[in-house]
Give the backbone structure.
Amino acid sequence: MKVALLIQRFPGGGAERYVEEIATRLHKKGEDVTVVTSKNNSDDSKYGFKIIRLSSVIKLGEYHIWQGLEKILEQEKFDVVHTNTYGYYHSDKAARLKKKFGYKLVMTSHGFTGMDLHTLKKQKIINNVSPLDFLREIYDDKIGKKTLLLCDHLIALSMYDYDFYKKIGADESKISIIPPGVSDVFFEENIPKIELKGDPVLLSVGQLSWIKNQKMIIQAIPYLIKNKPNTHLYLIGTDGGELTSLKDLCADLRIINHVTFLGSKTNKEICSYMQSADLLLHTSFAEGLSTVLLESLTLGLPFVSTPSGGNLHLTNLGVGYKVPFNNYHYLSQKILELLDNQNNLQNMKHHTSKIALNYSWSVIFPQIFELYEN
C-alpha cells in the first residue's frame, strides 16, 4: 500500500507529531509512505520514511499555495492520501484531484482553529484582528466544507469534530472517531522526577503563542502567590512570537522569580516534568484535541483547560477541569480550589489511569491502518 501524509509543516507540534507517528509505524510495517510538506531547514535524514518538500509560491496568512503538489499526486500514484488540518491549501487541492488521480482521500481536520478563532473574535473574547478576517466565512462556506464532503473518510479526533462533520452533512458511515495517540515514552515505568522549586509546581506545555494564550496563566500567578507564596510556574515550549511579551508581563507583575521559561524539551524530559508537577495548565483559544492533555492523564497529572475544541469533551469525561476563556481570576480560583481538595485530585488521578491506555499509539495506529486498508 502506498500512502501519502500531507501536512503544512514538518516537524512541529501536535498535528505534525501525529503525522510522524503514523509515518514511522507505516514504515516499520514495510508500507511505502511519503510525507508531503513545505520546505524548511529540517534534517530529514533522521527519518526512515520519504519526505517531499514543496515551495510555497503564494501565502495568504497560513494558507500556503504549494508549487508542484498536483504533479506529485499524479506521478507518485498513491493508493491513499491522508491529508491533515482543515483550512489549508494541500487539503483543498488533494480533495479536488482525488477523482482525477484515483486515490482514496482520508482527512483529519485536527479541529477547526480558524473557525473557532473567528467565532471568539465575533464574541469579543479575542481582540487580535487580521485584514484577512473577512475571508473566513467565505472560505468555510465556499471551499472548506466542500473539501470535507469530498473526502472518502473523515477522522474525528473527538466528538467536537464528529458533531461538526455531521452538521455539514457528512455521511456518518464515513466518519470515525479516532483520538490522537500518546507516545510510547509516556507509558514507560519508573520515569524519573526532577527536583523543582515551588509549592505548588504548575506546568504549561505548548508553543508560546497568542493562540496558546499563556498570558492568561501568567496573569493568574499574582493571585495564587497571595494564597500560596511559593507558587512556581514552569513553561515548556518554543517561541511562537510571544516569549518576549510574556517575559515583559512577568516583569510588570513582579513575578519573575515565580516563573521559569524552559524552552523546548524532548518527550522524555516532558515526562519527568509532568511527574514532578502538581497541575498542568492549558489555556488555548483553539485546539483539535490537545495531545499534551492526553499525555498528562497518562501520567496521572490533573489538568485545567479552556473549552477549546475537543478539550471540552475531554473535561466532560471527568479527567480534567474546565475554565472559561480569558478569565484569569476564575483560573486562579479553580487552581486554589483543586489544590486545597487533595481527595478530589487523588480521585481524578485514579480515574485517568483507567482510561489512559485507550490513547496509546499501539491502540490508535491499528485503527488508522485498518481504515486505510478498507
Q: What stands out?
A: The first strand starts at residue 2 and ends at 6. The chain has two domains: 2-177, 185-359. Residues 2-177 form a domain with the Rossmann fold fold (CATH 3.40.50.2000).
